[in-house]
TrEMBL record:
Keywords: Signal
Protein source organism: Littorina saxatilis
Any one GO CC term of the record: extracellular space
Region forming the signal peptide: 1-17
Cross-referenced InterPro entries: EGF, Fibrinogen-like_C, Fibrinogen_a/b/g_C_1, Fibrinogen_a/b/g_C_dom, Fibrinogen_C-term_domain
Protein name: Fibrinogen C-terminal domain-containing protein
Boundaries of every Fibrinogen C-terminal domain copy: 119-314
Top-level taxon: Eukaryota
SUPFAM superfamilies according to UniProt: EGF/Laminin, Fibrinogen C-terminal domain-like
Amino acid sequence: MRKTLLAVLTVLSSTVATQFVSETVFRQYSLCSTDCRFVTRGRSKIHCSLQCYADSACVFWAWDSNPGLCRLCANVAEENCAEIGHAVLPGYLRTVCQNGGTLDISRWRCSCFAGFAGDVCQRRIYDCSEGFHLNYPTRVYEIQPPLATSPFSVYCRMTFGGRTYIATRTHPDLQFNRTWEEYKNGFGNVSGDYWIGLEQIYLLTNNGLDNELKIEIRNSTDFHFQQYYYYFRISDESSYYQLHFASTKPNAQPGKALGDSLSPALGCRFSTYDADHDGDDTENCALRHQSGWWFPSPCNLTKGNPLGRLGQPGMWSGNPEDAFWFTDFGNRALLHVHMWLVM
Ligand SMILES: [Ca+2]
C-alpha cells in the first residue's frame, strides 16, 4: 500500500499545477459538482482526494467530514467550475498541511505540531483536552475555543484527559483582590500562578460538551483533596458570568474527598469589590471576603471561597478574607488551590 502511494506522490510532485484550493473555495466548487456516480466512506479529506486521483473517471472530489462521506464526481456542471478538474489535486496535496504540519501518507492525514489541530492543522487546539488526545506534551499553549475570535494562553497539563487550568495558586504573593476588569480578562502568569479570566472560561465552557470543573485544594504540600462538577459552564458578561453545573461528586479515593462548597453558589453571578452582583442588599460579599467569586445571598451562605488569601499549613484563621472551604474540608487553611477543566 505504501509503495503505491509513494508512486502516486511522485507523479503528483512532478505535476506542474500547484494551485492551492482553500477551504472556502473548495466548498464553493464542490457545490458545482455533478454526476457523483460513486459515494464511499472515506477516512479523511486527503484519503478522499487520493481516491479521486487514482480513479481516472474522477475529476472532482467532495469531502463531508460529518459523517465522513467522500464523493467522487465525474463531471462539473457549470462552465465556471470546469477549470478546477483534476488540477486541484496535486496542489492541494502539496500544501494541504498548514502551520508546520506534515502529510502522514500511511495514516491518510496531517500530523500537526505545536498546538495546532484540525483536518489540515489549520487552527489552534480548542482546549487542553484536545491537545491531550493529540499526544501533545505538558506546557503552556495558545488555545482557541470555537467561540473565541483570537487565541489565548493557558497552562495545559496533559494527564487524565488533559487539564485546562483556569486557576493556579501555589503562593500567596499573587493578589486575588482584583477589579471586575481584571477578573474578566485574567491576571498573573500562565507559567506560574494565574487566573485565566471569566471571559476565557465563558468561551471555553460554552461548547456544548460536558465540561468537568475540578477543584483541588491542598492543606499541606503532601495531601490534596478534590471535588468534581459536571456540565459546568458560565454565562456571558451580560449575565455577570452566572454559574451553572448539573451535579457534583468528590474524589472517590480514600482521604482525597474535598466536599461540595460550591452548590450554594449555583446560579449566582460573579462579584468583585467594584462590581456587586451577589444579591445581598446589605453588603458586598466580595468586599467582605476580599476577592472575586460566585457569592450567594446572603453572604453568610458562602461555604467556600478558594480565591481568598492563602494561608499556612494548619487551621483557618477565622478571618473572612482568608480562603476557606467548609464542606467537608472543614476549618483547615488553604495552602494551594488548582481549578481546571476537562472537556
Ligand atoms: Ca451585595
